[in-house]
Write a structure and sequence with these properties.
Length: 169
């Protein structure tokens, strides 16, 4: 009990419930009567109070207002989220599951650094693509000129068979 900080549990519970906006809920209210956002907050509160060694969260800020989303967790956390503000303020690294050719790519830092790297990668790709388009256009032009030259070339005609012997002398 002491190792799990049981003596401070009530105080911690009050802090967590306050941070997540749950203190106003009557204790006798049933979970099935809570709104979706209230249920999400309650689930998050229970997770934080258990102090697990790590959290695995899927879209943790869905159905939460700004005050509830500001709750902190000191341990490691792996989350799937599209909330760019959360990613820019709370994470230390990102894994992009939409990497080149279906790969997962890890980026260190916050969302802002990730977005800057993505923009730089896009500019590099556009530069390579423009160079490829220029090479393709030049190759097509060479092929077009070669086909015109080939069309104008006519080999010896086969109608002057007697001329072969006359020229051979």
């Amino acid at each position: 009990f002491a190792a799990r900080d049981g003596w401070r549990f009530e105080a911690r519970a009050e802090e967590v419930f306050e941070a997540l906006g749950l203190r106003r809920l009557p204790p006798a209210r049933l979970v099935r009567d809570l709104s979706g956002g209230e249920r999400a907050r309650l689930s998050l509160a229970l997770l934080v109070l258990r102090r697990p060694p790590a959290l695995l969260l899927d879209e943790p800020t869905n159905h939460l207002d700004d005050a509830a989303a500001d709750c902190t967790y000191p341990g490691p956390c792996l989350m799937a989220s599209h909330d760019r503000d959360l990613l820019d303020s709370a994470v230390t690294g990102l894994i992009d599951l939409d990497g080149p050719e279906g790969t997962a790519v890890r980026y260190g830092g916050r969302y802002g650094a990730y977005a800057a790297e993505q923009a730089a990668a896009r500019r590099r790709w556009e530069t390579r693509y423009r160079a490829w388009e220029e090479r393709l256009a030049a190759a097509r032009q060479r092929l077009s000129r070669a086909s015109v030259t080939a069309r104008d070339y006519r080999g010896p005609r086969d109608t002057g068979k007697m001329e072969y012997d006359a020229r051979a002398v």
